[in-house]
């Protein structure tokens, strides 16, 4: 029988790879860093105000949605730049659509945040 460390290595490898991608996004992508700061502000507010578990869950889901879409947007833009380094209106349209998906998630998260936090702020 193999030692436990060797058995667990395949389990942890995907987390290591994901961590490298996350670190790259933090270092290289300004918009991801901005959204990460916003997420930390939301996390702080989640502990500051007496939110219900459902409200906390919605906040967590919205943060994950925005950050995840931003990672996908960055990945898509990088792939498109790799395959078509010259300016191409078709590529520009795809990039704009991808950025629009992130914008829609941000607007939805902002609306959810207002609905959740505004009653606590107005008390």
Automatic annotation (TrEMBL):
Cofactor detail note: Mn(2+), Zn(2+), Cd(2+) and Co(2+) support activity to lesser extents.
Active site: 70
Presence of keyword Zinc: no
Keyword tags: ATP-binding, Cell membrane, Kinase, Lipid biosynthesis, Lipid metabolism, Magnesium, Membrane, Metal-binding, Nucleotide-binding, Phospholipid biosynthesis, Phospholipid metabolism, Transferase, Transmembrane, Transmembrane helix
Residues the entry annotates as binding substrate: 56, 70
Transmembrane segments: 32-49, 97-122
Keyword Transmembrane attributed: yes
UniProt: a divalent metal cation binding residues: 29, 77
Location of the protein in the cell: Cell membrane
GO terms of biological process kind: phospholipid biosynthetic process
A Pfam match: DAGK_prokar
Cofactor: Mg(2+)
Similarity comment text for this entry: Belongs to the bacterial diacylglycerol kinase family.
Name of this protein: Diacylglycerol kinase
Source taxonomy: Bacteria, Candidatus Gribaldobacteria
């Amino acid at each position: 029988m193999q030692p436990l460390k060797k058995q667990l290595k395949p389990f942890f490898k995907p987390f290591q790879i994901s961590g490298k991608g996350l670190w790259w996004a933090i270092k290289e992508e300004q918009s991801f860093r901005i959204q990460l700061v916003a997420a930390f502000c939301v996390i702080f507010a989640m502990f500051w105000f007496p939110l219900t578990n459902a409200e906390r869950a919605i906040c967590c889901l919205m943060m994950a949605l925005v950050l995840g879409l931003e990672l996908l947007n960055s990945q898509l833009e990088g792939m498109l730049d790799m395959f078509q380094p010259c300016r191409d209106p078709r590529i520009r349209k795809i990039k704009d659509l991808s950025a629009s998906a992130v914008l829609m998630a941000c607007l939805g998260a902002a609306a959810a945040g207002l609905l959740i936090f505004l009653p606590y702020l107005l008390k």
